[in-house]
Amino acid sequence: NTQVRQMVSFWLSFLRLRFASSFYAFRKTLQRRLQKVEATLRYQLVLDAEESELGLPALQELVYEGEDEDDTLAIESLLKNREQSDLEWEREQLKEMLAEMAGIDGLSSKMQVLLSTLDQRRNRRTRRMRQTVIFTRFFDTLTDIVTRLRQADPEMLIGTYSGQGAERYDPATGQMIRV
Prior knowledge:
- By secondary structure, the protein is mainly alpha-helical.
- It has helices spanning 2-21, 23-50, 55-64, 72-79, 84-101, 109-120, 139-152; strands at 159-162, 165-170, 175-178.
């Protein structure tokens, strides 16, 4: 089916973008996909076992709710009208991939370059860093960057702005707070 092939192609392209953005973003996407596949399987089991009265709106809420809507189109098309055995196969593949990735948590080469570049922007006398703006496409990548910057330099003053609002580092609490 041409439409299914196009949606699979879209989904793979999306995964490549996430992987290129950050390993963390890729892993989060696979985790959300696994949750949605499992939710679809649970919904199918409920329907098969009880002739449930959940209906389509409940399925959409169950399967599609989540903080990242970038993959909604692909997930909607790729979960629709899937056989239980096919979904079970995908669930096992996702679990296997996530298990294999569990031990990978070091700094990526991109993060190493970022940390090195930021260090070069630091005043050697005062240790303060010149203001720097970092752009990223995905919120998950932003989350990962902030976490790694906080680990590298807990005193670094960080501010973020995304579709989820603005936050800044509060030295008094040592936490990111909404502004």
